[in-house]
Amino acid sequence: MEIDEEFAQEIREAAESVESLPQPERGTRFYDRLRSAIRRYVDKKGSGVLGKTADFLLLVPDVFILLWRLTTDSRIANKDKVLLGSAIAYFIFPFDIIPEALMGPMGYLDDLVLGVYVLNKMLVTTDIAILREHWSGSHDVLESIQGVLYAADSLVGSNMVAKIKKMME
Question: What is the pTM of this model?
């Protein structure tokens, strides 16, 4: 497995650059750095090579910032905020099932799937209008969630999806 050192360094720098910022600005700064790094990767590889995966990779920063924004919304139940915090930690911490340091941006696909499963679970107790209010993506948030859920098996494999589903129980 080839390490994408350039991308790993960008993400390390992004994480380090947010540590000294006030709490409300940290998520936005990480979002901006992550979006730039993924955009450069997709442009470098070409969406023809990555296919539909490029579209999913470009959703990663939007899902991250949505999770971040929802943690500060007083309309979100505390039990859902615990789920949101867990998903954010999964995005940020380098130790996960598909590590970004080894896989480059492709390592964010498991983070994306986990984040979307958290958002989907929240829809039971949270009005979709709240998610839409905080959404930065170009397509409707519900369409994006459904798209990732539908493609989850092909993005990360059925074993990973089964683990995520088990965590959501």
Answer: 0.81
